Amino acid sequence: VLYVDADEEMTPKLAAEIREALPRFAAGAGGAFVPFDYVFCGKKLEHGHRVYKLALLARGRSRFLDYDDLDVAHMWEVEGHYQPQVQGDTFALRQRMVHNDHDSLFHYFDKHNRYSDWEANLRTKGLMNDPREANVGARALLKRIFQAMPFKAPISFLHSYVFKLGFLDGKAGYDYAVARAMYYWQIRIKTEELQKARQASAAAARDDAVAGAAK
Fold first, then answer.
1. pLDDT at residue 36 above 90?
2. Cα–Cα–Cα angle for 37, 182, 193, nearest 5°?
């Protein structure tokens, strides 16, 4: 099964590579990671942060995990926002799919505002980055290191714009790096807001319990 969103575009080279890779699934592989070229503000980014999605799946050997996220307000199902669990080996393809969202920037930021709500909720519950999710190469270790770091927003900007040479994409590369940094900034302050709310709720419950015991 090829898991494709409405804003993702197949290329002839990727289709040919998928045909060549099909025997690996017959031999027991569980899934293949597909790299993406990202179109931002009308420009295809050649550099910057590279997204890999486990988009080619063996149907009988893969499933999306059940996350405790039904209490996230203004949210919909987000299976594509994390990697599924697979049985069998995984491998990475070389040819890229194109992520080209034809909607406006309003839609982009509205979507990521909702995603940051979802991620902040899971972080507060300690549910982010389930080790059962499949990852390509050393990505699982790198994700754990990144999640443990403070100042994720400036780190993500430097990663995209400097270390991954996003500056070579000109203004679009800069804007994308800023947008990615802003996403992690949103997650941080929303996580802090949720943690404070949980602490206040727990304190109120303790006060009620003490008051009830004193009667």
1. yes
2. 135
CA 63 to chain centre: 17
φ and ψ of 214, to 5 deg = -80, -15
DSSP notation for 95-163: S-EEEE--S-HHHHHHHHHHHHHHHHHHHHTT-SS-TTS---TTHHHHHHHHHH-S-HHHHHHHIIIII
Query: What amino acid occupies position 195?
Result: Q
Place of tokens 């669990």: 85
For residues 48 and 43, give the distance between their C-alpha atoms in angstroms, rounded to a whole number. 13
Looking at the whole model, is its pTM more than 0.70? yes
Residue 88's region, left for phi above 0, alpha for psi from -120 to 50, else beta, is left
- The residue assigned the tokens 């899971």 is 122
Domain ranges (residues) in the chain: 8-214
Return the exposure string of 107-123: e unless at least 16 CB atoms fall within 10 Å of the residue's CB, then b: eeeeebebbbbbbbbbb
First to last CA, the chain: 62
What is the torsion angle, in degrees rounded to the nearest 10, for the CA atoms of residue 201, residue 193, residue 146 and residue 88?
A: 60
Q: How many CB atoms lie within 10 A of CB 43?
A: 15
Place of tokens 């995209």: 160
The pLDDT tens digits of the residues spanning 11-24 come to 999 999 999 999 99
